[in-house]
Amino acid sequence: MTRGSQARRDAIVELATTSGLASVEELSATFGVTASTIRRDLQALESAGQLARTFGGAMAMAAHPEASLRQRTGEEFEAKRAIAAWAAAQIGPGEAVLLDSGSTTGALAHELRRARDLTVATTGLTALQELANAENVHVECLGGTLRHLSQGFVGPLAEAALTRMTFDRAFLGADGVTAEDGICEASLQQTRLKELMAQRAKRVYVLVHAAKLGRRPFHAWAALPDRCMLVTDAKAGEADIAPFRARGVEVVVVGADGVAEQRGA
């Protein structure tokens, strides 16, 4: 095997580890080699125990173990804070808003502690903790089954609670988001709940820092809601945003200074 072949295979493992599933076609285009060359690479990497073959592609053997909310809270902290500050500024007095579980929506709850005449419903323990002493915010907990890793409630009780309420705005998080498949999460319970949350709100925002754009670490998906707004941070490049823009998704890029540039439809 040539040095170039080894470098390519090392890069394939790195790409599968950081970005999740990769198809033969994507890898062929990325490395400028034929699909048959990529298939030989994948076969060799599978034999070496470095990758697991999938239909049409490969994934890392580690398969992206789900990080706990505690682990994720410190990641891209400044980006999450900027996104949360921008999102909070969109909410008007007297509105009813719905917050997903997660670290970015938890940061949004932190921004809302001093709000007045506001109703906040949430599936997340972090948001509940942030708003526990916010006496001027009416707080509703959707309840359900607690996922300990994500510190959020899911399941039929949470879904049933949603049928009793409507909202002016819903703010959703994600483990990854792609223009093709939508919002990626570790479990179907999570993605099912996100779809229902989106249905109950007039405006829907998907809050993700730039590292999650194009990322597909798991196999459970929720389609991007119609007329949703994707809100990310200034590390997002045009190549990251272009696939969403091509599908008519409205994109807002929030800078560290809190100034947002709107891109897309």
Automatic annotation (TrEMBL):
A Gene Ontology molecular function term of the record: DNA binding
Any Pfam family matching the protein: HTH_DeoR
Occurrences of domain HTH deoR-type (ranges): 5-60
PROSITE patterns reported in the protein's UniProt record: HTH_DEOR_2 (PS51000)
Keywords from the named record: DNA-binding, Transcription, Transcription regulation
InterPro entries: Carb_Metab_HTH_regulators (IPR050313), DeoR-like_C (IPR014036), DeoR_HTH (IPR001034), NagB/RpiA_transferase-like (IPR037171), WH-like_DNA-bd_sf (IPR036388), WH_DNA-bd_sf (IPR036390)
SUPFAM superfamilies noted in UniProt: NagB/RpiA/CoA transferase-like, Winged helix' DNA-binding domain
Protein name in UniProt: DeoR/GlpR family DNA-binding transcription regulator
UniProt source species: Saccharopolyspora erythraea (Streptomyces erythraeus)
